[in-house]
Amino acid sequence: MVQSSSPVDNSFGFVPQDAIVETQIPVDDFVTAKQKRLLTDSLYTSLRGQSFLVEANVGILHTHGQPLVVPDLILSLDVNETWWQQRHSPYFLWEFGKSPDLVLEIVTDRSGDEVNRKLSTYERLRVSYYVVFDPDKLTSDTSLTVYELRGKCYFEIAKINAEGRSIWLEQVGLGLILWQGDYEEKDNLWLRWCDGENHILPTGFELAKQELLDREEHEKRAERAESQLMQANQRAERTKKWANRLAEQLRTLGVDPDTI
Fold it and tell me: How many helices (H) and strands (E) does the chain have?
């Protein structure tokens, strides 16, 4: 995440508690903004009816008087919906009663220190999964690296480079997959959520588009069925007319067609 210029030291994405609104405003580049939108939209589309929170650029405040840590994305499951009453506040750990289940950092330059200082901080906050997405491989030779908290320490559980490769995150019941494709009319390598069978979780637009395609296909099948029925009726009518003409011809020859 690119940060706006400010007298506040934010090399780690920290925001002093007294400068949450006026001093520190997160600024994303176009690709990063789309990537975050993709990850949030697809979960709110696909996990309807479940109690969770997934948001971008929301600060986590873990201790009174300490600065915020602001990951690019947080996911917290089974949250109490009363958090909306404090909707102008960051993610206060003592109010939610738990750490986020997953945090994601997107590497946009070489100064973010994602695999050192940030990793140590999220490890100390006991976040179950820490995900580093480095699509341009600015800090390593890996596009996606995933860490899982085991005991008090993070363990690297996946390093993924290839399109179509995925990692299943057992503790959150979701997978992550690298996907080359079109999102908001831009073709790119995107990080996406998936299910246990590597089926990508759709965004609202993708779901609506698929429903439209399904409806159009259903209408086409109905039209084909109606056309086939009409053709069958026409064939039956022609057959009936032919049978009637044949019967008339037999009668003119003195043959009762009903006795044949």
Answer: 4, 15
- Which token pair is 197? 């069978």
pLDDT digits (tens, 9 = 90+) for 191-224: 999 999 999 999 999 988 877 676 767 767 767 7
Residue 33 to residue 216: CA distance in whole angstroms = 32
Is the separation of the CB atoms in 105 and 113 below 8 Å? no
Residues 6+ apart with CB under 8 A from 144: 131, 132, 133, 134, 158, 159, 160, 161, 167, 176, 178, 191
Domain ranges across the chain: 2-201, 212-259
pLDDT digits (tens, 9 = 90+) for 121-169: 999 999 999 999 999 999 888 999 999 999 999 999 999 998 889 999 9
For domain 2-201, say whether CATH 1.10.1760 is its number. no
Report helix, strand or coil for 155: strand
Residue 186, CB-side half-sphere exposure with 13 Å CA sphere: 11
Q: How many CA atoms lie within 13 A of 149 on its CB side?
A: 21
Q: How far apart are CA 205 and CA 38, in angstroms?
A: 10
How far is Cα 98 from Cα 89, in angstroms, rounded to an integer?
A: 16
Q: What is the pTM of this model?
A: 0.74
